[in-house]
Design brief:
Length: about 260
């Protein structure tokens, strides 16, 4: 076990446990949580009891396993409605997916990572790692680069400090200089490309979602497999993609999306 090091005290430790359960994506037994958690047995059990009593976790006595609780699900749903672009973008994403016939992702930035808040899957012939509710690195995804390129200098600096620059494929940006060198091109063209930087065989074209005041609040990508299309093929989707992100940005502005 690693020694706990959470500067946010009890609340921070409790949230780490919730993140741990959520990240596993399935009911999990105490023994497995203990092997993954930095907390001693008694401390972990106490946190689990409190989280269960508060409805943030649910405990199945038959399987002796913990899963996310209904109270947490209700809170997540409320957050999705009030702080996610998904509700205002829903019909626009449907139209875009119908037009291009490829997978669509809607993402926002959170702590230097992209959080996928909605997805339209057009074919069962391939699948991407991006799933609604999951996070991915910003430095190697089309949506991540599209958001980063249009951030204010202050926001960009914070986000860049949060990049680990993990190398996933030979095409992944491996450092800050390599990544930022691409931003001028993205700003000039209005779109970013994922050139198999996160997943081998998966490419995408992405555009930022901008409020009418110019603040970037998210991005939309059209993703496909290299077995189906090339990067040049994705260029043909640029007008439809940019039009869709403009519509989402206008709708988010009218909705008074947090800026």
């Amino acid at each position: 076990m690693n020694k706990p090091d959470n500067k946010d005290g009890t609340v921070g430790k409790a949230l780490e446990i919730l993140d741990l359960v959520a990240g596993l994506g399935r009911p999990v037994r105490f023994t497995e949580l203990l092997s993954l958690s930095p907390h001693p047995k008694a401390t972990l059990y106490r946190f689990l009891q409190t989280l269960t009593n508060q409805g943030m976790l649910s405990y199945d006595e038959d399987r002796q396993a913990y899963s996310l609780g209904l109270r947490l699900v209700r809170m997540a749903h409320a957050a999705w409605k009030s702080a996610s672009l998904a509700p205002v973008a829903e019909t626009i994403l449907d139209e875009l997916a119908s037009t291009v016939g490829e997978t669509i992702h809607l993402a926002q930035m959170e702590n230097g990572q992209v959080l996928f808040v909605d997805k339209r899957r057009a074919t069962a012939l391939f699948e991407t790692l991006a799933q609604t509710g999951r996070v991915a690195p910003a430095h190697c995804t089309g949506v991540g680069k599209a958001i980063l390129a249009f951030m204010t200098p202050e926001r960009l600096e914070r986000a860049l400090r949060q990049q680990a620059f993990v190398t996933y494929t030979p095409a992944t940006h491996h450092d800050r200089d390599s990544l930022t060198a691409e931003f001028e091109e993205i700003r000039a063209s209005g779109v970013a490309f994922d050139r198999e930087e996160h997943e081998q065989g998966i490419i995408s074209i992405a555009a930022p979602v901008l409020l009418q005041n110019g603040r970037v609040v998210g991005a939309v990508s059209i993703a496909t497999s290299t077995n189906r299309r090339t990067l040049k093929d994705l260029e043909q989707f640029r007008p439809a993609l940019v039009a869709a992100t403009q519509k989402i940005g206008d709708a988010a502005t009218l909705w008074q999306f947090p800026s």
